[in-house]
Amino acid sequence: MTDTIPARLAELGIALPKAAAPVAAYCPVVVVGGIAHVSGQLPFRGGDVVTGRAGQTDDVPAAAEAARLCALMVLAQLEAALGSLDRVERIVKLNVFVNSASDFRDQPKVANGASELMQQVFGDAGVHARAAIGVAALPLGALVEIDALVAVRPA
Known about the structure:
The chain has helices spanning about 5-10, 60-80, 105-120, and strands at about 30, 35-40, 45, 50, 90-100, 130-135, 145-150. By secondary structure, the chain is α+β, with helices and mostly antiparallel strands. The mean pLDDT is about 95.
């Protein structure tokens, strides 16, 4: 693995999106006691929110891709707040909320879209605790939303 996270992203062919502006009254990232608390991030493709419902309008691969897009936005928010992703010490926990049909049971498979990305980017430091939660609705009709706790090094 390369020495810096930006180099690792380039090696993986990943370009981070521009960090999205908040859609309500909150801060995208708050750092307290060496932990970055990343507010819920939505999946964006081409500037638009990816909408849908797992098990109804979208299958597991489509929802997992939406989770991956959320994870990319988590990284974009961290980079904007920290100045560099090299300050990330460890991805501690992801909470993955999946807009789900009432009989959909594959939320963990959807969450893997985000979890696998974090592991690709950060290696062992990307292995994290996680919750994968099915919900009836998400902001703006989003298919997935993810928040995160991330251990960070001092600036």
